[in-house]
Design a protein that fits this description.
Layout (H helix, E strand, L loop, with lengths): L4 H10 L4 E6 L4 H5 L13 H7 L4 H6 L7 H8 L3 H4 L6 H11 L9 H11 L4 H9 L2 E6 L11 E6 L1 H4 L4 H10 L7 H17 L4 E5 L10 H12 L9 H19 L2 E5 L17 H4 L5 E4 L6 H10 L3 E4 L3 H4 L1 H14 L5 E2 L12 H22 L5 H19 L5
Parallel strand pairs: 1-2, 2-3, 3-4, 4-5, 5-6, 6-7, 7-8
Length: 414
């Protein structure tokens, strides 16, 4: 990444700012404490994609974290692939974590054993606070781990729309009804159950729900057909009716309206992952204007459809652009797209950072945040240097993207 004096000054200023981490998958701290960690855990999570792309088998990858196998043997499996992924965006946070938290400038044949020992010694209560609050200055992290967690306010939960909007069997309906002490005979009863569930989630501190941008989001909504499909599933006549997509569409739109009424944000996964054709951001083009009172947080710049998402953001006042995950997927693509977003989108609709990590590798949030600061500085620094904006103005933009915008979007009391 190109550097300048301005670039360095911006990074320094951002390092002194409080941060709202706008997307993680961190569970309770105890999830991390229950793991026997070592140096190879730094190369878990997203590094899996690059390691397997480089030739490692899925079984070999899984074996890297089987601590019943001696670390020397697991390192022998890992070592040949390290040079191939060392310069990928996914790997850099591992090296930054080794340096910042454990005092090792590299992960190699000489350091993996003492690094592992140091990581095990540091895997103690308070590790979340030491990493997230003390070193990253993260005030709170919006997390999706399938549970309501808070860790004394350090984590703020979102839960998944699929829990209610996807209906798979009569048993599933009965279970959901039992959890809410409700009776569900008809689709109207189930819609009331969704409202009750969302209200209870909000009372527990949930600030939003998560959905995916898939073809199902654009399925034809027909209340009559949805009612018939629900009845067949509820009665056990057909757990997979051919018009099930209409049922999902109906329940999805009902849920999205409720989110607007209850002041819950809808976070939308777009783009990257697996067969990303099914996660095209364009599936949401008709959904957003249908729910003008509902706020949508569009994840990952929709990579690789970064320009498409920019145009969606430009055309929809209820859409925010969230750069979570993007800084490690491709720093260059992130910088290029963010520079265009300044031209396309009001500055108060951009969210600058979300680490997107699980408890297993919480240390890597720090390295990802470093990369986010660098990318933001690269974009704003060039604009300052060519006279397009002032330094003080750029600092305020950084504060918007890293703190104020997610705070306002999610109505956070921090």
């Amino acid at each position: 990444m190109d550097r300048s004096v301005t670039h360095a000054r911006l990074i320094e200023a951002m390092s002194e700012m409080d941060i709202i981490d706008a997307h993680e998958h961190l569970g309770p701290e105890q999830d991390r404490l229950d793991i026997q960690v070592d140096a190879l855990h730094l190369f878990g999570h997203y590094c899996r994609t690059d390691l397997i792309c480089a030739g490692m088998s899925p079984d070999q990858y899984d074996g890297l974290f089987d601590t019943s196998i001696p670390i020397d043997k697991r390192w022998t499996t890992f070592r040949p692939f390290l040079p191939h992924i060392r310069h990928c965006g996914y790997a850099r946070p591992a090296f930054e974590a080794a340096r910042k938290f454990y005092g090792f400038d590299d992960v190699n044949d000489e350091t993996y054993r003492p690094l592992s020992e140091r990581m095990a010694a540091e895997n103690t209560p308070g590790i979340y606070r030491r990493i997230l609050r003390n070193e990253c200055r993260i005030v709170t992290a919006l997390t999706q781990c399938g549970r309501v967690v808070s860790e004394a306010g350090l984590l703020t939960p979102l839960l998944h729309m699929a829990y209610y909007a996807e209906v798979g069997s009569a048993e599933q309906i009965e279970q959901r009804a039992a959890e809410r002490c409700a009776t569900v005979e008809r689709i109207d009863d189930y819609v009331a159950l969704i409202r009750q569930g969302l209200q209870e989630w909000k009372a527990d501190g949930v600030v939003g729900i998560k959905m995916m941008s898939t073809p199902a989001a654009e399925a034809v909504e027909d209340e009559k057909i949805a009612t018939q499909a629900f009845a067949r599933i509820r009665d056990g006549a057909d757990p997979d009716p051919p018009d099930k997509s209409a049922l999902y569409a109906y329940l999805m739109h009902e849920t999205l309206d409720m989110c607007g009424e209850l002041d819950l944000v809808v976070a939308v996964h777009m783009g990257m992952w697996g067969d990303f054709r099914t996660l095209d951001p364009q599936w949401m083009i008709t959904v957003l204007p249908r729910h003008p009172e509902t706020r949508f947080d569009l994840y990952h710049m929709g990579m690789p459809w970064v320009r498409v998402v920019g145009v969606i953001g430009k055309n929809n006042p209820n859409a925010w652009m969230n750069l979570c995950w993007t800084h490690i997927i491709s720093p260059r693509m992130t910088v290029s797209a963010l520079d265009e977003y300044i031209d396309l989108i009001p500055l108060n609709k951009i969210i600058g950072f979300g680490g997107d990590y699980s408890s297993r590798c919480v240390e890597k949030v720090y390295g990802h945040l470093l990369m986010a600061r660098e990318n933001i500085a690269a974009v704003l620094g060039k604009r300052i240097d060519r006279g397009a904006m002032g330094f003080d103005e750029a600092i305020e933009i950084c504060r918007l993207w890293l703190y104020e915008n997610p705070k306002q979007l999610y109505r956070l009391s921090v």
